[in-house]
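hi!! sorry for the late reply, been swamped w classes. u asked for the two structures so here they r. pasted raw, havent cleaned anything up. first the sequence of the first protein and right below it the tokens
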Amino acid sequence: MEKLIITAAICGAEVTKEHNPAVPYTVEEIAREAESACRAGASIIHLHVREDDGTPTQDKARFQACIDAIRERCPDVIIQPSTGGAVGMTDLERLQPTEIEGTEMATLDCGTLNFGGDEIFINSENTIKNFGRIMIERGIKPEIEVFDKGMIDYAIRFAKQGFIEKPMHFDFVLGVQMAATARDLVYMVESIPEGSTWTVAGVGRHELPMAVMGIAMGGHVRVGFEDNVYYEKGVPAESNGQLVERIVRIAKEMGRAIATPNEAREILGLEVK
């Protein structure tokens, strides 16, 4: 079984210090949390950025500052900016981090999502196509974010039309719009094209069981404050690194070695540095 790629989603756009005081906002805090995850074994940092007061932003300059700060501490890690941003942002706002030189990966959401209450995260067909085209032009590999089976079908359709390059890499985000069970994960894995790679991210209490299933099934795993701010029920996690450390321990017990950033690049078809 190939080595395990661990992605750390260190802050997201929705969770706050009210949920967990360790959620990072400032450039220094984001770099600190990225370093904690990298030292623990993460080879990819999935990156949202915030203003100092916690407001989510897609500002290119803010992304650049955070990326530079992470690079100082973790020079080899793969940094994967989010093009999801936050609910209500325009496409142009969301695409800003893809303009940053040296960006290897970025997220590509392949469908519209009910995100809770009245919040709707809109990704029209034209948005998906445009984001895919721009990533091809800029030499960026998309991580295809899917929240239900229909989003896999969109990705396959748009790949056939030339808007997404193969082999594709999927991130199954379960526990939001689609349930997070073994049946659901198997269904998603069996629905993607041969030769694709995949990661699973379970939201909230689903994070750990989905991670364990992903390890056992030969996929890859995402953990971090964006998806879950607790280490166990009622106990806030101390850091993103603590969440990564647990996955490393479990993976080793299950016979999966942990991929370094360059080994992750080889698995994902990125240029090795």
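now the second protein. again sequence first, tokens right under
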Amino acid sequence: MSDLQPFYLPLGAAEQTGPDAVERFEATFSTTGPWFAEAQHGGPPSALLVRALERVEPSRDGAPPAMLARVTVEVLGAVPAGPVEVRAGVERSGRTIEMLHATMSAGGRDVLRARAWRLARGDTAAQQAGLAPSLPGPEHATVRTERPDGWLPGFMDAVEWAWLDGWLGEAGPGRAWIRPRVPIVAGEQASPLQNMMIAADSANGLGAPLDVREWLFVNTELTVHLHRDPVPGWTGVAAETVVGPYGVGTVSATLFDADGHVGRISQALTIRKR
């Protein structure tokens, strides 16, 4: 594990400052797998897009403090390892409500697009309601370092997996704590939300009801809703999948951190025989 690289290596400084600044990165071997040796897992590029969204300046002077309350990442095609470009900006400006956008491109084509709602903070601490019960902590989970048969190295080894129920090689709902072993970007401390995106995009593997040796189930998007900022450390994921009759499925999962329930995710799946 000691020779694992960060998920991304910066390739020079941003091309410009301000709206839609372009940043270039080298996606390392740590981003790849588990299905295809030359394609990135969805977690690292989703985290890199969140990094870009977090760096977008408010569009209005004097805007109050805000948080990313929803992020949707659309997968436009296989995301290759190697050089990638990322740009982000404001799609809908506002003082208390803004929509942001971010795009990752590789080889001259867009491979991922993200949109996020950034909402002003208020004080509803005394009105909190509807929180899911906390998961047992990672100290109650079993850390597993092996890969299921047929799953490729790279991303699988760059992430630490602590299991409460299920496993990546077992069918059915799963609950696990997840954290990256490596930085998102070399030389940087990733934000809690960036690290949470790594875990969130793994939900379809955690909650898979089908044998991965016989079936492919690939998510076409990832939507994360948050009701507060995540805190540093492990991300807990409790995931389950519904398989419909026409080769289409849905994944839903509840997200946790050291302070309890922090958000929910959904994914649309395309499902087919290997």
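hope this helps!! also noticed smth abt the second:
The chain has one domain: 8-120+137-273.
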